[in-house]
Amino acid sequence: MDTMLKNSTLILFILLCTISLPAWSQSTKSLPETEGVSKVVKAYPNPATTKIFFEIQRNNDKVYEIIVYNFLGKKVDHLKNIAQRTQVNLDNYYSGLYIFQLREKNGNLVESGKFNVVK
After folding, report:
1. CA pair distance 51, 89, nearest whole angstrom
2. Is residue 61 over pLDDT 60?
3. 102/68 Cα distance (integer angstroms)
């Protein structure tokens, strides 16, 4: 009975994290939802095993940072002063789904995405 309660609590927690993720990742400034708009950042390869690249598609001379969260919402990485193409070593990452946010230097959310680590 105790194991069943723990398992159902864990499932409920994961479900709530999944449902609340869009609200959690929004900034105070909303971005227009337009189809056909090209992405600002591209993450590849996806899924990744040992390293992942973040490539800025259109820089406009802005300084960006990328914040990486695990699936439970815990910050696992913070990359500052992103260059046109940045490589991230995944040695300290576990297998699973990660969410990243591309932010301007002042903290405004530009774009978010996800990538999968498979080891």
Report:
1. 5
2. yes
3. 9
